[in-house]
Amino acid sequence: MPYSFSDIIQYGLLYLTDQRGAAAIIFSVIGICLLGYLVGGVNFGIIVSRLKYKDDVRQHGSGNAGLTNMLRTYGKGAAVLTLLGDVGKTVLVCFIGSVVLGQTGAFFAGFSAVIGHIWPVWFNFKGGKGVLTLAAMTLYCCPPFFLVMITIFFIIVAATKYISLGSVICALLYPILLSRFIGTQNLVIIPAAVIAFIIVFKHRSNIKRLYNKNENKIKLSEKGVKTWVLVVIGAVLVAASVLTIYFTYIKGTYVIKYKDSGLTSTQYTVLYVDEKNGNPDATDKKALADAACVRGDRIIVLGKIAAEKGRSISAAGSESAKRYFEDNLTSLPGYVEGDTAETYCHRVYGSNVSPAVVTDLIRRETFVNEYITEIGEEEAAKQLKEAIDEGYASGEYKQDGKARDRVVKTH
């Protein structure tokens, strides 16, 4: 097999086989979304109620073909079957999406499955509310983010006994928190916001009942669950979420940091991939990572020094960085005919890297290069070494080796 399983899931076969022009990407996205919608429309709440109970769950309770209504109408056995079926179909389409287009494909397939679940073509466009499908998609596409969301959901439901309230609040927070994990410039943030709005809209009757204080509460069990059990579960989830946020966001925010200036892991990824493209025969990932860090050192430290000395980027340098993709796109490593700046960045650097990220990095490096030209290479090297030595001694200069290793492993 020419590609590893992890590479296929992360990047997708479209990227790995060089079938990555704009037309190929557009048609692949359309195909993934269509498949996601059709498979997502296979609503297991309806199927289980019809096959096992010769009934239609939509004729009972809230009229919704979702997990909660299945639990209230038919009990735990039916709810478990619905859970397994709806989670399974979502994981399947996300897997297919990731095989084709990597993580971005998985997100698009998953979001389409949510739409299919809510408005299934197979069942007269009347299905569930999409919460379980969205949760399953999130678990597949971004497990750390799922952990944070399920913690918030659990705390709300455990405290209020209102599943609908937990669902609505999590939906409102969904695109905001997702952007913190995958970047605000990621293509999937827009459909994430749309899906969140749809789920809140589908809960409008629940919101009205919550407002009127006559919404149904969920019974965790017939005898009730001991308070200490809920407290323990909640504490474990909160602790796990805090650690997840720390290691995937706060700690990973700055791979290299000097004083109050640093590079994000996304920007560092750009440097690493540039080093890799500049030396395609290199096999030593650590050497490439170290080379990227050397470049990062210059950008961060000398940029900070230059700013403290009152320097600023020239108008010509700023304009050059702004027009980088317009002037150079067709000559960049890995360019494929039909590429736009957006498709090029997502394909070459990863789905969380936008042209704006690359342009900002180029602008910072241009500023540093202008400063080096002004003071000379020898003086620049001296200032860089002195600043780093002083920074290490004072604790104001840090290199996060774990974050660096994480970036290396993904490429």
Give the helix/strand layout.
Blueprint: H1 5-11, H2 13-16, H3 22-40, H4 44-53, H5 67-74, H6 76-118, H7 131-141, H8 143-160, H9 163-182, H10 189-202, H11 204-212, H12 227-253, E1 256-258, E2 261-263, H13 265-278, H14 285-308, H15 315-322, H16 324-328, H17 341-348, H18 355-375, H19 377-394, E3 397-399, H20 401-409
Antiparallel strand pairs: 1-2, 1-3
Strand tally: 3
Number of helices: 20
Q: Characterize the biggest β-sheet.
A: 3 strands, antiparallel
Q: Strand-and-helix sequence, N→C?
A: HHHHHHHHHHHHEEHHHHHHHEH
| Overall morphology | elongated
User: Which structural class do you get from the secondary structure elements?
Assistant: mainly alpha
How are the strands of the biggest sheet laid out side by side? Answer: 2-1-3
Give me the Rg, rounded.
25 Å
Q: How far do the termini sit from each other?
A: 18 Å
Estimate nothing, just give the exact number of structural domains: 3
Instruction: List unreliable stretches of 5+ residues.
Output: none
Averaged pLDDT: 86
**Proportion in β-strands:** under 5%
Instruction: Estimate percent helicity.
Output: over 70%
Walk me through this protein's architecture.
The chain is mainly α and 411 residues long. It has 3 domains: 1-138, no CATH class; 142-252, no CATH class; 254-409, no CATH class. The protein is built from 20 helices and 3 strands. The protein has helices spanning 5-11, 13-16, 22-40, 44-53, 67-74, 76-118, 131-141, 143-160, 163-182, 189-202, 204-212, 227-253, 265-278, 285-308, 315-322, 324-328, 341-348, 355-375, 377-394, 401-409, and strands at 256-258, 261-263, 397-399. A 3-stranded antiparallel sheet has the order 2-1-3. β1 (256-258) and β2 (261-263) form a beta hairpin. α6 (76-118) packs across α7 (131-141). The longest helix has 43 residues, at 76-118. The chain is elongated, with a radius of gyration of 25 Å.
